Amino acid sequence: MATPATAIQQSEVPVLASTSPPSPLDEKETGDGSSTPEKMTPTAAPATPKSLKFWSVFLSLCLLGLSTALEATIVTTALPTIVESIDMGSKYVWVGNAFLLASAVVQPFVGQLADVFGRRWPLLLLTTCFILGSGIAGGAKGAGMLIGGRTVQGLGAGGILVLCDVVVSDLVPLQERAKFMGLVRITGALGSSIGPIVGGAIAKANWRWCFYLNLITGGLALVYLVLFLDLKHEPKTWKVALARIDFVGAAIFMASVTSVLLGLVMGGVVFPWDSANIIAPLVLGFVGWAVFHWYESTKFCNDPMVPNRLFAKRTSAAGFFMAFDGALLLYWVIWFLPVYFQGVLGNSPLGSGVNQLPLNMLLVPSGIVAGGMISKTGKYKPQHFVGFALASIGVGLFTLLDAGSHKAAWVCFQIIAAVGLGIILVSVLPAVQAALSDGDVARTTATYAFVRSFGGIWGVTIPTVIFNGRVNKLLHRISDRGIREQLANGNAYGFASMGGLRNVRPPTRDEALGVYSDALKTVWQVGIAFALAGFLAVFAVKQYDMSRKNETQFGLKEGTEDTTVSAEKGETPAPTPSSTFAPKQCIPRTSSLLNSMIGDSTITVARQYIRDHLPPIAAGAVIHDNGCGTGAVTRAVLETYPELVSSSPETTIYATDINPAFIADFEKQVTSRGWDSAVKTEVMPAEELSLPPSTVTHSFTNFLIFGARDPPKAAAEVLRSLAPGGVAVMTTWATLPHAKALDRVRARLYGEAHPHIKPEWYEASHVENILKDSGFAKVTAFKVESGMEHESMDAWTQLAWSWMGQPQGGWTEQNERDWDAHRSLYGDECVKEGFQVGEAGRVRVPMVANVVVAWKGEQ
């Protein structure tokens, strides 16, 4: 039998020996807003001191965040210069779009890669990818090379955006994350804001340095990461690692999202919105997206890239919506304030950038303050209310702007909106992470990043469609036919952005300004609806306790300020395998629990092969029940041949097991059944049998061999103890649905790659070969059907999780809080593996056993 954290046991169902510490999952939310167990009150936890290594890594992440965000917007002002240098024709639109598309579609996949391969190598490779793409784009001689470089850049940037937040989550506990994530994200917001200014300035000298700049900043960050990003990670074989990657899901997702995004970015720019070239990719993309989420929930997907459990809680679902909505609002404002300044006030692009400084400059400090408040108080929900309230008010106030608005008005309105949007930018991810498991932190963060990227694209698409549509309806107010034609069919935004209105003479200019002003009012009015939708979503958010310890398996190594608290600091040490803590819901691991869990599954197998496949057992036999556990074989023998209890000559049954508790429990059963004269019990490992050689006539190793510490040695000991012509029976499972479900759940929750039962043990030939190699003369095998039944899925998961859910590091208090959520997840996976649930809720588990029979010498 395999071993739990505190003892080695041999019995009929192996204990999974895991290799990684657990990941927490907060209380399970119910439909009425309650939780199980009782709701926890947010408390402020003291901040842990940070080492030089931590700060070196953190500054590298900030530098990467700044560089990647800068690249997203730097070409907006440099593009005219680039187009003059390289003949691109209509392909110029892909200089920006290729970067945005590539960065968005790769993000969820990066989250899974980080779970499988750890954080260090994916981040180093993605940073290298970003630098390489920058070099390709900077050295581009033609449109194809430039767009290709931007695509490679985007792949790296999208992954970096995900892993920056993931690494921060690994390095600091939940309550401190908002502060540090806020700093990383705010550097990104700063990069996005100054990108157009930097791009315009660099383009005047040499536009190629818009890309070459990253060779310096990215290279510096890469060097620091190589030197200091030394994270824990349990290495896996390539076979195990590749088996965990959701290649099919990734292919469906990337194809579907790319199709949707192509439709969105080309609509109204390359093709009209009612064109088949736009409608077809949108429809195909959304259908494919639905297929992706269906596939992720099926048993065909062993380890989903975007598991449905991320959206199962009200708080996480609301959080993802708020992330989408917040990004949509941010881009909505950033994209259309310049239209007001250039189209209505007649500013130049540079003047528009200066007038927009209140928004751009206040996003940073408001986000920093919000992150600091969350870290200090442990409460994020008030920040959500304030953020969306201010965003709603700010967007609403923009509806008042027109050509006669005072400077103080649009400055104050921007300040209100900026503070709200800055708070939203920082405060949402901590809420989502608080509601979900630290074991899912990479996929949670990756999904969050994608949702934000997707929201940003909609934040440009929706108001652009509204604006251009409204302008088209108002064009009759412009008397000059030539200006009407220049503004029609989606050209109004670009006309204003290029400063075209400054060259229009009165009174036509005043007419056009009126059209722009009224069209913008409609844009802002629709924006209010989205802002209020985000505000309403806050009511669905639950406030979780954020003072929990960071249960990551990817923290910094060797005494750095990894978030695992240390005894040297006077704090509670992290659990070790010797921990004796057990969740209050956990049933003690005794033979009684094992018997309740497995039911008649093992004794059914034993009854069949004893009754139907072996010669009759005669009086005087010496029988060995090897790894007796609950005594299934002994019971099957004596139920089939009750006369053996008091036979003459005397029959002896040796029931042995390595677990003293199992032996003690079985001794009580022997006494109560009156088997004392025939059954002898003894604590004994299968690899070191103390039975005399050549004495046993029948040896039964029932569902033990695959859990033995040394299976070949155990088989050799059986052969040694057998008398010439003696028979040995060994059983394994050919199908064990709950084990495969358990493997997936433990991989997701604890990051463990070791299967409950190694794949080779499902094959009878593996046991046959062991017995043949041990010296048995004749070996045969056959299959026997069996199964388990339980009154409900809830009853089954309570038993099974008590027996098999313990992490190798030992149970923790977090596991106690996670109990119901983990059981629920395990139950869902069991259904995927073919558990049969009847109308009354009764559960049946179909199972098939391999029975291998071998003889010593000639029969």
From TrEMBL:
Major facilitator superfamily (MFS) profile domain boundaries: 57-545
Quote the cellular component terms of the Gene Ontology held in the record: plasma membrane
Biased-composition ranges, Polar residues, are 1-20
CDD domains with a match to the protein in the record: AdoMet_MTases, MFS_Azr1_MDR_like
- What InterPro entries has UniProt attached to this entry? Methyltransf_11, MFS, MFS_dom, MFS_trans_sf, SAM-dependent_MTases_sf, Sugar_transporter_CS
Q: Keyword check for Transmembrane, yes or no.
A: yes
Note whether Transport occurs among the keywords: yes
Which molecular function GO terms apply here? S-adenosylmethionine-dependent methyltransferase activity; transmembrane transporter activity
Alphabetized PANTHER family for the sequence: MAJOR FACILITATOR SUPERFAMILY (PTHR23501), MAJOR FACILITATOR SUPERFAMILY (MFS) PROFILE DOMAIN-CONTAINING PROTEIN (PTHR23501:SF187)
Q: What is this protein called?
A: Major facilitator superfamily (MFS) profile domain-containing protein
Q: Which organism is it from?
A: Didymosphaeria variabile
